[in-house]
Fold these 2 entries.
Entry 1:
Amino acid sequence: MALKVLVADDHALMRRGLVQVLEKETGICIVGEASNGTEAVEKTRSLSPDVVILDISMPDMNGLAAASTIRQEFPEAAVVILTVFDDDEYVLEAAKVGVSAYVMKDVDPSELVKAVRAAAEGKTYVHPAVAPKLLKGFSRYYGDKCAALDALTKREVEVLDLVSQGFSNREISDRLFISEKTVKNHLSNIFGKIGVDDRTQAALYGLKHGLGARVVGRRTAV
């Protein structure tokens, strides 16, 4: 079954370019386009896409507001945020609402495709240029709120390490020889213990505490 993607950007030329890149890919189907955040939310409701690509800065509801609404109403839909270098404050806000992937607007087309596929698989994808901003913002905002790593069990640390490397629940299940349900239970416990709300924030926590280091440069991880 083809991956259904909705593309939202207020610049028609940029939006058309994104669509053309993705339309060439096997297994990806563009189900709709939107020119602002309000339209993106409305089309998500009517088209039920698997992945929604949102420009972070759009009129009539920006990408962050749209992402927040979409994640609340359609938690099964992954959100990919398009950003530029001067969106530092927006990047951390995007992490707070549960965005799955962060892509620079000038990214190579192949990286955009990787981000979309990774998000659809339940992974966290952050472009290398965005990662320092996320980690800096995470440390500033969550630094005094998160518990120490020793609050986790050995198995929870293993799961968090793999989350920080960008692995999906299924991949973690295969690597640790446990069920996906058990992975989800571990993640729920991890979120509660370290004081975060979702997978992306957990991955940032892991990186802040030295996990995920074995895959430095891997672009499907934060």
Note: DSSP finds ten helices and six strands in the chain.
Entry 2:
Amino acid sequence: MTKIVDLTKTVYKLCTDNPELIHILKQLGFEHITKPGMLQTAGRVMTIPNGARMKGIHLDTIKNTLKQCGYTWKA
């Protein structure tokens, strides 16, 4: 079954519902996601598209990686 990532939800909510996303997002360049407190603070207001813009990561790169890991997305 394909897992769906809702790109309008916060990183905190997505990672709480799907803890394996933490590792995937870290590998994509969200390296601070594993620092203590970051997921609970910035993650509560940040969405993947907003974080991607801040980090200079193309959203298509994230979507392709999610697809390779068995995810699909909705916006």
Note: Strands lie at 3-6, 71-74.
